[in-house]
């Protein structure tokens, strides 16, 4: 999973990693959402790597 770093930076708005992943499932297609839900419910670790966010288009 490679969400943007802004989700981590503003985790008070989005929640901790597990809450962020649950939130993301609402924006995925059914297959990917089901897979992510299964992986999160498996009890094993979920590796979240935050990608950088390019603010230049907003400048």
From TrEMBL:
It comes from the Eukaryota. This is Electron transporter. It comes from Solanum tuberosum (Potato). The gene is LOC102602270.
């Amino acid at each position: 999973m490679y969400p943007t770093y802004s989700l981590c930076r503003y985790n008070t708005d989005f929640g901790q990693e597990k809450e962020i992943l649950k939130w993301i499932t609402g924006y995925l297609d059914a297959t990917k959402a089901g897979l992510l839900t299964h992986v999160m419910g498996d009890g094993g670790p979920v590796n979240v790597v935050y990608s950088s966010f390019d603010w230049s288009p907003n400048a």
